[in-house]
Amino acid sequence: MKKKVLFVCTHNSARSQMAEGILRAVYGDRYDVYSAGTKSTGVNKYAVKVMREIGIDISSHTSKKVEELKGIEFDVVVTVCDSAKESCPYIPGAKRYVHKSFKDPSSATGDEEEILETFRKVRDEIKSWIVEEFSN
Questions:
Q1: Which position among 18, 83, 114, 129 has the lowest Cβ density within 10 Å, counted as fewest Cβ atoms?
Q2: Would you name the residues annotated as active-site residues?
Q3: Could you read off the pLDDT of 60-83 as tens digits, one per residue?
Q4: Contacts for 115-121 with beta carbons within 8 Å, 24 or more apart?
């Protein structure tokens, strides 16, 4: 039986979307993976681009609010930003809560290449953490 994991961030646009895609790609045989936000704003185009660079397609992902996943009992709820940790609603049935804050790549400035570099750095940090956290 696969464990259900929910990644939560404020807007469900970048960090939680990348985490969902990475966990599904790396350990999808062990986990059913979801992501949601305390708000919903759409999936960031730079997140889609940098994920595609490592062979993970999140272009069909949609931005969702946590309330849209009501009724699913999660084994693990992971907040990936401090704001989400503070405002994450109580999720009934969640067996374990984990908090791991990653820098918001959406706040990156500069030209397109500089913005992509910021997204790549956060993507790689998320991937390293997921491999370490979910490997057992």
A1: 114
A2: 9, 81, 88
A3: 999 999 989 988 999 999 999 866
A4: 115/46, 116/46, 116/49, 116/50, 119/14, 119/44, 119/46, 119/47, 119/49, 119/50, 120/50, 120/53
